[in-house]
Amino acid sequence: MTKPFGARLRAAMDALGPLCVGIDPHPSLLAGWGLSDDVKGLESFGRTVGEALAGRVAAIKPQSAFFERFGSRGIAVLESVIRQLRGSGSLVILDVKRGDIGSTAAAYADAYLDPASPLCADAVTVSPYLGFGSLAPIIDKAQRNGLGAFVLAMTSNPEGASVQRAVAGDGRTVAQVIVDEISQVNAGVSPMGSVGAVIGATVGTTGLRLTDLNGPILAPGLGAQGGRAEDLRAVFGDALGLVLPSWSREVLSAGPEVSALRAAADRARESCASAIAVTA
């Protein structure tokens, strides 16, 4: 049986350092690489990022939307990228931010967390804002298959604050409620649970209690979105050891040369490792 995602991610972070690199083929990035904004350009972009980074960073995070915009042919490219990366031993976090109820949530689980699916990843991002319990089919499927899920808790977009920092009836913020629900799923798991939280690297002081989370924290927003590695300590405090910083455009813009992409990823990893080691 496959080791749980949390254990595999912990091992990858320890061996390769704390870094997740996104595959976000924005039209501007395709143009910057001299590629056409079509399926052919998409294929070349995904293949090059895979060649450059597969097996060299702890995780790679394709953003599904940038493949979906090309319809079925774009999804076929996404399937190929996932297959290439997982075949190389890389952990793939598919950024899809799905969330629904009942049979629809179960169908999303079948799409992304069933080893028989061509879109199966090691973990997916999910939204809990139909209620954390609505994610049960996704979390259950992930755990049965040794896979994982990252639940949106406090995101880097400014619009999120009106919901995520709102105060529930018991005095906790909505984001804290989500973190506490994740903590219950991960309780007692060693070395780290397979259900993580998404907390933006640009959110500043969160006020969140993360000591019981016992799961990975995906921290997007570094680089082009304004987050700096040195900000991680202020955002995550004593939970730094759980943090998987995520960089996308700042690393990807170094392409299309494989050596340049690798060098950019190395710089990002070194800056994050240095920041996290301050209190390690």
Automatic annotation (TrEMBL):
Xref: CDD domains: OMP_decarboxylase_like
SMART domains: OMPdecase
A Pfam family it matches: OMPdecase
Pathway stated in the Swiss-Prot or TrEMBL entry: Pyrimidine metabolism; UMP biosynthesis via de novo pathway; UMP from orotate: step 2/2
Reaction(s) the record says it catalyses: orotidine 5'-phosphate + H(+) = UMP + CO2
Active site: K97
Enzyme Commission designation: 4.1.1.23
All residue ranges annotated as the Orotidine 5'-phosphate decarboxylase domain in the record: 18-264
InterPro entries named among the record's database cross-references: Aldolase_TIM, OMPdecase_AS, OMPdecase_type-2, OMPdeCOase_dom, RibuloseP-bd_barrel
Lineage top rank: taxon: Bacteria
Keywords: Decarboxylase, Lyase, Pyrimidine biosynthesis
Keyword Lyase belongs to the record: yes
Family to which this protein belongs: Belongs to the OMP decarboxylase family. Type 2 subfamily.
Protein name as catalogued: Orotidine 5'-phosphate decarboxylase
Taxonomic lineage from the root: Bacteria, Bacillati, Actinomycetota, Actinomycetes, Micromonosporales
